[in-house]
Write a structure and sequence with these properties.
Elements lengths: L2 H5 L3 H7 L6 E3 L2 E4 L11 E4 L4 E4 L4 E3 L1 H8 L4 H8 L2 E2 L4 E2 L4 H17 L5 E6 L4 H9 L4 H7 L1 E7 L2 E9 L5 E4 L4 E3 L6 E3 L5 E5 L2 H10 L9 E4 L10 H4 L4 E5 L4 H13 L3 E3 L10 H32 L3
Parallel strand pairs: 14-15, 14-16, 16-17
Antiparallel strand pairs: 1-2, 2-3, 3-4, 4-5, 6-7, 8-9, 9-10, 10-11, 11-12, 13-15
Helix pairs in contact: 3-4
Length: 319
Amino acid sequence: MSIKEAKETDMVDYLSAKGHEPIKIRGADYWYSSPLRIEKTPSFKVNRQANIWYDHGSGQGGNFIDFGILYHKCSVRDFLGILTDFRPGFNSFSQEQENKQHLFFSLAVEKKEMDKGKIIIVNERPLSSSSLLIYLATRQIPLAVAAVYCKEVDFLLYEKQHAAIGFRNEMGGYELRNDYFKGSSSPKTPVFIDNHSGDIDVFEGFFSFLSFRAVQTDQSMLPNNFLILNSLAFFGQQRHTMEKHGQINLYLDRDDAGMNCTAAALKLSDNYRDRSSFYCNQKDLNDWLVLDRKENSLLIKHKEKQIVKQRKSQHHGRF
């Protein structure tokens, strides 16, 4: 591939093929958790129209080739070789001409395993770490709910081991969250939970899903089917799954991307229903849950103080 052809390769497609999906989309700007380092708040922006990027956290930026040599830690020539077999839209690299490319793919796999910037899953176990349990508590997710759907996952990144709450998809990839990290291991796909229902509840992220389960009063009641997209970018390809159901309840985020997606879905069919109105003043269902329970806690404390004050007043009134 020539340098000119490489510069014209869609960077959003390439990032998706490598397991990186946008956290938010505003016009032509796609925002990611930086693929080049660990960060808590997404600050890596790709302008899809210009096909350029800028990492606000590190102050680096440039064209697609500039990104490629940093991401793969290689020369321009090596990156052009890597790009030769990239097929946009397939989220994979071509395996045609197997005999000719056998050596290339063997080396690519070996390099991927050694690449310090890739997430490598080491181990999984039931949730038990005190730091992760505290994190769940700050997000107002009961352990009894999280333990059904999540594991405690050890993973390597930049030669350091971390522990996170892991939400596994059917292909073995994980959505990973802890107090300082938000990311995912490859492959990244949605999660469909079949409860043999004719209706389906759709969520953008797994913490919104866990929040929904946390507020369901009767956990023994047979729920609807669930679809956790893990990225809004998967909405289109999941229409066939959603539209097999009679009623499609959307609990998407209340940011621009989520609301635009909901509005577009409502035009497709009357089966789509927007269920986000009760958290309309919050970014997503989990933000609503955290605020709602904090407000209730403050209300209870206020009432307790009033009762104590009244009792003290009544006690002093006896003398």
